[in-house]
Protein: DUF1508 domain-containing protein
Amino acid sequence: MSNSDDPLFEMFQTEAGGGIRTEWRWRLIDSDKTILAVSPQGWFRKEDCEQSIAAVKRAAAGPIQEEPDVARMDRLLDETIDEP
Structure:
């Protein structure tokens, strides 16, 4: 059960391509509306944005790594850049 003080995800739409279309984005906010995190990109489909939120939730449930695996981070960045 969520507490009203728990951070929550907000989904919203922004203009993209010079206002020709919209993109779905998310932000994670706390109870004071302080932005804790933002989506790294926008998605044209709401479902894709929801999948991104689900991925962040899964990652947040995992262990905290103090010294990141730089090679893994580079691979993730490459995959993100290669996406259409």
Notes: The chain has a mean pLDDT of 85. The chain is about 35% helix and 25% strand. Strands lie at 8-16, 21-29, 35-38.
